[in-house]
Amino acid sequence: MTFANIHNAKTHLSKLVAAAEAGEDVVIARAGKPVVRMIPFEKPDTGFDFRVPDQFTGEIWMSDDFDDPVDFGTNDDPEDLAER
Questions:
Q1: Distance CA 2, CA 30 (A)
Q2: 4 exposed, middle or buried (CB, 10 Å; 0-12, 13-18, 19+)?
Q3: In the structure, what pLDDT confidence band is assigned to residue 53 with cuts at 50, 70 and 90?
Q4: What Rg, from alpha-carbon coordinates, does the chain have?
Q5: Least crowded by CB within 10 Å, which of 3, 6, 19, 59?
Q6: CATH, residue 14
Q7: Who has greater pLDDT, 81 or 71?
Q8: Total domain count for the chain?
Q9: 3-state secondary structure at position 71
């Protein structure tokens, strides 16, 4: 386990990060009291990779008319709309 005070950590941050990446526990202290523990970042497993094409083929369904025009009533006569 590596201990460093804040001043030392600022001076040698890259070495402390390398030690944490290698699996070593790195503790940073303020006035001799431990306040931070550095650990390597672990990328969460989401179960899929957005960069892989066609990985959801056959799993996504879309209605046959999903891209048909939608009538929002914009073709109504403005006078009729004012009366509503």
A1: 14
A2: buried
A3: confident
A4: 29
A5: 59
A6: 3.40.1620.10
A7: 71
A8: 1
A9: coil
Q: Would you say 2 and 12 are in contact if contact means Cβ atoms under 8 Å apart? A: no
CB neighbourhood size of 19 (10 A)? 18
List 27's β-bridge partners, or say none: 3, 37
Q: What is the 3-state secondary structure (H, E, C) of 44-69?
A: CCCCCCCCCCCCCCCCCCCCCCCCCC
What is the tens place of the pLDDT at every residue in 54-65?
877 788 788 898
Say whether pLDDT at 81 is over 70: no
Question: Which are the contacts of 27, defined by CB distance < 8 A and separation ≥ 6?
Answer: 1, 2, 3, 4, 34, 36, 37, 38
Structural domain that includes position 12: 2-38
Structure tokens belonging to residue 2: 């590596």
Decide: 16 and 3 in contact? Cβ < 8 Å.
no
